[in-house]
Amino acid sequence: MDFFVGMLTHDEVHLEAHEQYQKQSYRNRCYVLTANKIDCLTVPVAGATNHQPIREVRIDNGTPWQQRHWRCLESAYRKAPFFEYYAPQLEAVYRREWEFLFDVSWEMLTICRQMLGIKTPLLLTEWYQKNPPDGTFDARSRMNAKNPPDKPLFYHPEPYMQNFGPHFAPNLSIVDLLFCAGPDALDVLRKSRQ
Fold first, then answer.
1. Which residues have C-beta within 8 Å of that of residue 22, sequence separation ≥ 6?
2. pLDDT digits (tens, 9 = 90+) for 20-44
3. CA distance linking residue 2 with residue 158, whole number of Å
4. Which of 110, 105, 130, 112 is nearest to 174 (CA)?
5. How far is Cα 155 from Cα 47, in angstroms, rounded to an integer?
6. How many Å apart are CA 67 and CA 141, to the nearest integer?
7. pTM for the full predicted model
8. Quick one: which of 157, 186, 164 has its CA closest to 2?
9. CB 71: neighbour CB atoms within 10 A?
10. Contacts of 66 (CB under 8 A, 6+ apart)
11. I need a surface site. Which of 11, 71, 101, 132 has the fewest CB within 10 A?
């Protein structure tokens, strides 16, 4: 959710489209709350290295990752108040064949922004700049899956009712917020700004 709160914090967001792929990052994973634990959903990549441009990273479709992801989401959220409302659009993404990681990530990001009603312009970079222009807030290396979950960059958790247990699990995938809070999701994000 940190990324989505970040979009609400700035007038315009540039998504890095020409960086080199970074293993064990949010570029191919997200976290969801299941009945027993927080589960990591990972899109498997085919032989990607840290020196490969992000837009050239291919998905390893030799594993049934789409089925695993969708089954996990159904199991975790089918009883959530807004699952039936948002599920069809997300399920359609999982039913398509994807070749490149960047394309499926961009599609999911686009759909989730639409569902939330986020209007902040989101632009793709045209080339890689190691040092962005003065006055630009560079969050590329600061928003990292390796960082502790209690150290987000923009997100200050505003608890909402989740599906499992009395303890709130912060900074999960945005689908957790959508399925659980529905039309109130954008307000929860706004209240979550630091």
1. 50
2. 888 877 789 999 999 989 999 999 9
3. 12
4. 112
5. 33
6. 31
7. 0.90
8. 157
9. 12
10. 94, 95
11. 11
